[in-house]
Specification:
Distance between the termini: 34 Å
CATH class of the domain at 101-218: Alpha Beta
Strand content: 15-25%
CATH architecture of the domain at 101-218: 2-Layer Sandwich
Largest sheet: 7 strands, antiparallel
Helix content: 25-40%
Number of strands: 18
Radius of gyration: 22 Å
């Protein structure tokens, strides 16, 4: 009989699961230790449960509760904050095999299991002339369950909002193994506490989401695109602030010089290597309104010193520039190891945040590349370093913390869409404050009194 270090019989767990769902082979288990953040402190789980249905998840949670074993839910592993890092002696519940979807075009909802990729939800909706807006840069490889667990955002949040704006309901397995349904296919529903919203963004610390009911909207017209090059990132940030005063484009993204050059090395699509920043904006307004919005954006860009402005209403050409922005993370990974930031500030303070990041990079002698969902003030400073150089690692870690301290000093947040996970946990008390942190702990303790659900994520 296989037994974990605490004496709990794994054979008992296997007996409650569908055949082949329990994985204990060390080489296979190794693939479930980290998410994309590659948390160096990730533990070694004693087993992985590859769930195919809610009943599998319930069985795993009940076993974990009975034996006081930590349980970490996991989607596609594309998270960037260590939210699904494995715990020593625990089990990982992978939801990658839960992939059903049903689209109701009349109610304009999709009922999906959590293992489906974001892009697959989009494609299924598009078959009915509908649109699922949230679009993380990793939308081709990130799971919809992970999107809900972190309240993921993306490139079109500036106009359409984030994942929580589209979750109407869910099925979630609680810490005692009970499965409950919250919300449903109703646009307006204010009966009782807003428990659905409580679980969105909870990073698997309150329950395990096994089904989602998502709101869909009519497919917007093909987008027109504006690309503008600026001599400095600061100038581009000032332009964004001016644009958002009167306009609401469907995309408003920025890349700094380091990112531009990394993406150009990666894609060879002819980006301007000399530009200090590249702005990519889109408008999906109906009819002639899109052209008018693009023209207004171009005028503001020129007034703020843009050295080159290019506009197109060709959807394929516009998507190529959006794809270049999405390629920033994998392109920058080729330069070295990354510490991935996700800080946001009130929009008027975006230029000040950018200047502060540049000062930190200079003082700590590290490269900090910046890409940004600039239209909503959410930036991704990426600290590039050599993991084989101890001094470089120390400087990178110091810079990482100073960027978050900077965002907090500007009234911002330590995460706009990636989640707290484990890598940003130390800064959460400063962000929340003593009273709100205590309230957060009370909620966690009430729903997970044994502390078995994703321990170490969000809270110590």
């Amino acid at each position: 009989m296989a037994v974990d270090p605490s004496g709990a019989p794994l054979d008992g767990l296997a007996a409650t699961l569908r055949e082949g769902a329990l994985v204990t082979d060390r080489d296979l288990v190794a693939g479930y230790r980290h998410d994309w953040a590659r948390d160096p402190d990730a533990g070694w789980p004693l087993a992985v449960v590859r769930a195919t249905c809610t009943a599998d998840v319930q069985a795993a949670v009940r076993w974990a509760a009975e034996h006081r074993v930590p349980l970490v839910p996991r989607g596609a592993g594309s998270g960037l904050s260590g939210g699904s890092s494995a715990v020593d002696g625990g089990i990982v519940v992978s939801l990658e095999r839960m992939r059903d979807i049903r689209v109701d075009p009349v109610s304009k909802v999709a009922v999906v299991q959590p293992g489906l990729f974001n892009i697959e939800v989009k494609r299924a909706a598009a078959e009915h002339g509908l649109f699922y807006p949230p679009d993380p840069s990793s939308y081709e490889i990130c799971s919809i369950g992970g999107n809900a667990a972190t309240n993921a955002g993306g490139l079109c949040c500036v106009k359409y909002g984030v994942t929580s704006d589209y979750v109407l309901g869910m099925e979630v397995v609680l810490a005692d193994g009970t499965a409950v349904r919250l919300g449903g296919p109703r646009i307006k529903d204010v009966a009782g506490l807003s428990l659905t919203k409580l679980f969105v963004g909870s990073e698997g610390t309150l329950g395990v989401i096994t089904e989602l009911t998502l709101r869909l909207v009519p497919m917007p017209p093909p987008a027109s695109t504006l690309v503008a090059a600026f001599p400095t990132f600061d100038a581009s940030a000032a332009a964004v602030v001016a644009m958002t005063r009167t306009l609401r484009p469907s995309m408003l993204e920025l890349m700094d010089r380091t990112s531009i050059n990394a993406v150009e090395d990666f894609t060879s699509m002819g980006l301007d290597r000399a530009a200090g920043a590249l702005l990519v904006a889109q408008s999906d307004a109906p009819g002639h309104a899109a052209g008018e919005e693009i023209a207004a954006l171009a005028k503001i860009a020129e007034e703020h010193g843009a050295t080159e402005v290019f506009a197109t209403d060709d959807p394929a050409e516009g998507e190529a520039f959006a794809a270049a922005r999405r390629a920033a993370f994998p392109a920058l990974e080729r330069l070295g190891n990354l510490l991935l930031e996700d800080v946001g500030v009130p929009l008027p303070l975006l230029p000040e945040l950018v200047r502060g990041i540049e000062a930190i990079a200079a003082e700590r002698e590290v490269t900090i590349a910046v890409v940004a969902h600039a239209g909503d003030g959410n930036t991704h400073p990426l600290v590039v370093y050599d993991a084989g150089d101890e001094a470089a690692v120390a400087r990178a870690q110091l810079a990482f913390g100073e960027v978050m301290d900077l965002a907090l000093s500007l009234g911002g947040t330590i995460t706009g869409e990636h989640g707290v996970g484990r890598l940003k946990r130390a800064w959460l008390p400063s962000y929340l404050g003593e009273d709100v942190l205590a309230l957060t702990r009370r909620v966690k303790d009430a729903l997970d009194p044994l502390g078995i659900l994703n321990p170490g994520a969000i809270l110590e």
